[in-house]
Amino acid sequence: MIIGVPKEVKNRENRVAIVPGGVKMLVDAGHQVLVEKTAGLGAVIPDEKYLAAGATMIGSAAEIWGSADMIIKVKEPVAQEFPLMRKGQILYTYLHLAAAHELGHELVKRGVSSIAYETIQLANGSLPLLTPMSEVAGRMSVQVGAQCLQKHSGGKGLLLGGVPGVRRGRVTIVGGGVVGVHAAKMAIGLGARVTILDVNAARLAYLDDIFGNDIDTMMSNPENIADAVAESDLVVGAVLIAGAKAPRLVTREMVRTMEPGSAIVDVAIDQGGCIETIRPTTHDDPVFVDENVLHYGVTNIPGDVPKTSTYALTNVTLKYAMELANKGLERALRDSPALTLGLNTYQGKVTYSAVAEALGLPYERVSF
Questions:
Q1: Measured at the alpha carbon of residue 217, what is the angle toward residues 214 and 223, in degrees to the nearest 5?
Q2: Which string of b and e fits 54-75 if b means at least 16 CB within 10 Å?
Q3: Which residue among 298, 318, 323, 324 sits deepest, i.e. has the most Cβ atoms within 10 Å of its Cβ?
Q4: pLDDT tens digit string along 188-201?
Q5: In terms of DSSP H, where are the helices of the chain?
Q6: Catalytic one among 266, 270, 295, 304?
Q7: Structural domain includes residue 367
Q8: How many whole angstroms from its chain centre is CA 9?
Q9: 295 forms bridges with which residues in the sheet?
Q10: Which domain holds residue 270?
């Protein structure tokens, strides 16, 4: 199989879809890997390392898209890449189609077989390709939130950990999954007072066990969310429903009760966001103010720490890339229920129900 790795073009997306070690594994298995020149520089991986691993370095993204049977990316294609997609081509990347309607319709129109990292799901319900980036984004959410609270950023001028004689900052995390756990670790490490809300009582019990008295846990319902948000200096949105648009759990009225200069970081923004006042932003212009509260809505948070994120991502994506390359699409899907759940579009059909609902298109179940 010919596998293409184009350079990412999303705003300040410095990650690259595969590291040289992954290229070597694919090449050793008999595949040809085309890597766009300088694709790895943002993650401090020079072209020479790809060449040494057996990659063919290509000067243009168009040539890679035009030659490859499978495209491996980090982030979803943007408008300038739509014309490069081909019928029958495999696209293996993060897609978040529930919040990317134009892309979803383009994939259907162009007959692309798209496999979304974020919907590949194991029998135990875990999302193995989403987990490492959720870990990164969860930790960074508190890091960037703490920066937003600094006065020079327009925040209220609060130190999350406080100092003796002064109250600690209050952090509310809406969602107790992977993002929420890692946000809590960072917030606790900074010395903040942390509250986590979740709808799953068993999950709250688990969080209480692992964090003990370092956090408060609350059942996620409108009243509890409203009470927690009103007291918060920083709110982190960490809600995920696999493949589906995130529910808007924090309303504008709730945001209005926060003290001016407080901050919101919505990690769920890739799936539309779980906070009513949030909108997508970029690393170039990451923060806006609404209801006197700073909002951080960057849709590719881990792209700002590409050296960490690139290796963490390849650790989990390479396994399925090898399966797709070695077996071909249909056989790989037939052999792997987890990979089958990653299939979002196929031959002009939407094959993931939550995505079909979000796009307003019919859902068609396919079998191999």
A1: 140
A2: bbbebeebeebbeebbbbbbbb
A3: 298
A4: 999 999 999 999 99
A5: 20-28, 47-53, 61-67, 101-110, 131-148, 178-189, 201-211, 222-230, 252-256, 306-327, 329-335, 337-342, 353-359
A6: 270
A7: no
A8: 16
A9: 264, 288
A10: 131-304
Single-letter residue type at 30: G
Kindly state whether residue 136 falls inside one of the protein's structural domains.
yes
**Mean pLDDT, to the nearest integer, of 332-358?**
95
Q: Is 152 a catalytic residue?
A: no
Our count of domains for the chain comes to: 2
Q: Letter for the amino acid at 295? A: H
Question: 157: domain CATH number?
Answer: 3.40.50.720
In the residue annotation, 214 being an active-site residue is answered as no
170-174 and 113-116 strand pairing: unpaired
Query: Is residue 237 assigned to a domain?
Result: yes
- The separation between the first and the last C-alpha atoms of the chain, rounded to the nearest angstrom, is 20
Among residues 304, 321, 338, the one where a domain terminates is 304
If asked whether residues 290 and 175 sit together in one domain, one would say yes
Q: What is the pLDDT of residues 153-182, one digit of tens each?
A: 999 999 999 999 999 999 999 999 999 999
Among 31, 69, 96, 182, the one annotated catalytic = 96
Mean pLDDT of 303-325: 96
